[in-house]
Amino acid sequence: MGVGEFNLIQACFAGQGGNPKSGTRLGIGDDASVHHLARGMELVVSTDSAIESIHWPNDFPLPQAADRAVCAALSDLAAMGAEPLYAWLNVMAQDSKSVSAMGDGACAALARYDVELSGGDTCRSLVNSLSVTVAGQLPAGTAMRRSEANEKDAVWIVGKAGFHALGLQQWMGGKKKGYFVNYLQEIKPKLEAGVRLRELGVRCCIDISDGLLQDAGHIADASRLAMDIDLSLLPGWDILCRKAGEKHALRAVAHGGEDYALLLTAPDAMRFLDGFAVKIGHCAIGSGVSLRVGKRSIGVAELGGKGYDHFD
Ligand code: ADP
Ligand code: MG
């Protein structure tokens, strides 16, 4: 006899995660959860999937993979400037032990960021995977959007780019204790920074999940402008070059996703106290993203292609 689906849900999910929010009228246990939103606030919702062998190496610990999946989902709320409130967790597992391992990691991340676990689904699957839906709130009309960059804006980053990709390379190459590996093991969604940026009046932001080149391109396309970025201004650029060499640093920054830094645009004169956002470039009239290191332009050939695409 197995442990049973209902018992597993009770043991692994009910009462786990962050504290229940005041807006929750009904949490785990019914067919759906019910939430109240205060007047003047909007709900921001995002969903993300993570699949073994696609989003994490199959020799990676399951709790850590699930923790990362939750943090990746929360990063989308950070990019919009939303305060996180709720999560719904679909756990698709090969066996009950895997349910429990993924539950542990996911709930630890939700507890760390005080996000209520409001529901989900638990089922057997041929491949271990999770799907995480998150919801947060912000004052109506203030969500930061990809389409709001202005051609006179400067471009800024909060956090590092390229470190995760090099960590993954080290892990896959058997260097499980390599310098960059801890950037692979833990994602830190920039939730407080996202709220702070939105409160400062920033209108345009994205989280870097698919590499700087692709994600900057999303802002450029949506806002119908060009963007020029100097990689040598990136936080940690010198460390990347010193430890991995410039060629690998370039590719890791341009194409290596999952650093979950925030990329934003704001008026050039904007000052971010204590330098929590770092200016790395400018917007301009035109289209597309140009990368350079100091004065030297970096072509697509030097970047070894255009980046990761699940269906390319
Ligand atoms: P239903 O069959 O009505 O969809 P389930 O039996 O799948 O309900 O789930 C029972 C309750 O447990 C629901 O409230 C559901 O949201 C919750 N639940 C199931 N799996 C999870 C999970 N992985 N994380 C959080 N809550 C879960
Ligand atoms: Mg039901």
How would you characterize the overall build of this protein?
The protein is α+β, with helices and mostly antiparallel strands and 312 residues long. The protein folds into two domains: 135 residues, 2-Layer Sandwich (60s Ribosomal Protein L30, Chain: A); 158 residues, Alpha-Beta Complex (Phosphoribosyl-aminoimidazole Synthetase, Chain A, domain 2), CATH 3.90.650. It is 31% helix and 27% strand. The protein is built from nine helices and 13 strands. The protein has a seven-stranded mixed beta sheet with strand order 8-10-7-11-9-12-13. A four-stranded mixed beta sheet has the order 3-6-4-5. A hairpin with a 7-residue loop joins strand 1 and strand 2. Helix 2 runs parallel beside helix 6, helix 4 packs across helix 9 and helix 8 crosses helix 9. The protein is globular, with a radius of gyration of 20 Å. The model has no long low-confidence stretch (mean pLDDT 94). The protein binds adenosine-5'-diphosphate and magnesium ion. The site of adenosine-5'-diphosphate (ADP) has 13 residues, from strand 4 and strand 5.
Strand content: 25-35%
Walk across the major sheet and give the strand order: 8-10-7-11-9-12-13
> Pairing-aware structural class of the strands and helices?
alpha+beta
Terminus-to-terminus distance: 44 Å
Unreliable sequence segments: none
Based on CA inertia axes, which overall geometry fits? globular
Number of spatially distinct domains? 2
Tally of separate helices: 9
Strand segment tally: 13
- CATH structural fold name of the largest domain: Phosphoribosyl-aminoimidazole Synthetase, Chain A, domain 2
From the alpha carbons, calculate the radius of gyration and give it in angstroms. Answer: 20 Å
How would you spell out the order of helices and strands? HEEEHEHEEEHHHEHEHHEEEE
CATH superfamily of the largest domain: PurM-like C-terminal domain
Mean pLDDT: 94
Highest-level CATH class of the largest domain? Alpha Beta
Biggest beta sheet summary: 7 strands, mixed
In CATH, the architecture of the largest domain is Alpha-Beta Complex
Estimate percent helicity: 25-40%
Bound molecules: adenosine-5'-diphosphate, magnesium ion
